[in-house]
Amino acid sequence: MGCGSDCVDACRSGWGIRCRFPIVEPDYGHTKLRLSKEGLEAIQRINTPIAAVSVIGPYRSGKSFLLNQLLSLSCNKGFGVGHMRDTKTKGIWVWGTPVEIDVDGSKVSVLYLDTEGFESIGKSNVYDDRIFALAAVLSSVLVYNLPETIREADISRLSFAVELAEEFYGRVKGQDVAFEPAKLLWLIQRDFLQGKSVQQMVDEALQRVPNSNGDKYIDEVNQIRDSLAVMGDNSTAFSMPQPHLQRTKLCDMEDQELDPLYVERRDALKQLVASMIKPKLVQGRTLNGKEFVSFLGQILEALNKGEIPSTGSLVEVFNKGILERCLTLYTEKMERVSLPVSVDKLQQVHDLAEDEARKLFDKQHFGKHYAAQSFLNLDEEMKKVFRSFGLANEYQSSKLCEARFSECEDKMDHLQALKLPSMAKFNAVFLHCNQSFEMECVGPAKGGYEHRMSKMLARSSALFIREYNNKLFNWLVAFSLIMVVIGRFIIKLFLLEIAAWVMFIFLETYTRLFWSSDSLYYNPVWHIIVSSWETIVYSPVLDLDRWAIPIVIMLSFLAIYWRCIGIRSRIGRSLLPLYRGSYRSSSRARTD
């Protein structure tokens, strides 16, 4: 009996309608699985922790009837039961009303899942593996429903689930597991209950097979048996007789018509399953409806990846989100660094960020064996991010060092054009420029720019020193001529004019006759002149080169003003005696 669109709509509006609906369906080729969104919307409304009970097994083995018995439902009201050769259930179906139970004082919603049977017509073994693995990972209790006995194929089919158990469930030195395994219930339906118990049957079926000839197939079978020990603590065996000989009429029978021993064992099975139910834990946390659906989507994506599902691909998908979180943490730590920084500093930040990202991965990752590949992926991604930060650091370092270098170069060029050359000023600017470059230029580009900087400073220093003596000599010659003009025509101070002429003659004649131009610069007299010049031109308090023009204008104004005052005073002195002389020489009688 299908759910139907009306029933699905009713289930979507709430959990009050008792119906079933698919949550996972096969694709058109019946090779892969896809989500049934209509059914999942109802599950997403569950706010309490979820536990899932799944029944798996060969097709036509009575899985749907068994689920109806566990839910105390008739075939007309519960899961659809078919009696034809083709399988009735396609994909995975869920009963629409979760059974709410109390587990350790907490309310848990139990979902009962009906799975498509194995080995039915028109399907591949890969599809069956996906169904088995999906049920094994989703469930809290996995009922392995087998008719009569345990076949080698039934054990082999556990290989994928066991591999998942080893990868996801295995404990390492007592640490928490990624998510707890489903408790496996071997349910053997057989008509004879005498002789060996089902637990003995399971134990014997899982014993190693002697392989004295070294048969490769037997080795693989024994490896599966060895690995099943991982699920040993979580497995239980239980037997049930057939409910009735007329199996095609089971849906029409009441409990009174069924075999009394079956009814007794069925009720015992209900209690056993109820005692085994625990909420599904992922990373130590329970899952509500939305989280359960998200978890289901992750599993399905992993199982559908590639043509053949593998534990490696499953681990990769589960770890995908964790890798992104670890990479985000690493990137955030790296982004806190204000570039540019030195290579050692960037490496130190990288090491700290990488260590924190790895610790987060170790804490949250899925799997033990295949997680190594996920770890390598994380390491490769962090290396890519680190390389990008390294390139950005080089760019920012080059940009900053180029700016400081250009500033220093401009300052050195400006010093070459000083109107009043000063070695003290050059040395002060030179030292300040070099210190600021050393402090502010950081990062991988600093080494190359330091070499350029030293060459530029050496070149500027040599050029300045060479031009300094020539400029100073020319300034002194010009200064002597200016003093001649001032001494003769402005203040008319004879001694000043004579001193200026002596200085001019000394610079232009005496030095050319007795010294070479180069030897002059090494003469002690010249050093005295240079020291005097430096004292006048530059000091930390007064930079005469900056104030030269204002000072010259002010001195010129004072000289002109002084000259004008002097002329007026001389005119006054020349006029006053004439007036007094005429007054005294006058012999004219004074009249009143």
What would your notes on this structure say?
The protein has 592 residues and is of the alpha/beta class. The protein folds into 3 domains: 20-308, 3-Layer(aba) Sandwich (Rossmann fold); 316-402, no CATH class; 409-560, no CATH class. It has helices at residues 4-13, 37-43, 63-70, 125-138, 152-156, 158-169, 198-205, 216-227, 260-276, 289-303, 311-335, 343-364, 371-416, 423-440, 446-490, 494-514, 517-520, 524-537, 544-585, and strands at residues 20-26, 33-35, 50-56, 92-95, 99-103, 106-115, 141-147, 183-189, 235-240, 281-282, 285-286. The strands form 2 sheets. Strands 1, 2, 3, 4, 5, 6, 7, 8 and 9 form a 9-stranded mixed β-sheet that branches. Strands 10-11 form a two-stranded antiparallel sheet. The longest helix has 46 residues, at 371-416. The chain is rod-shaped and about 150 Å long.
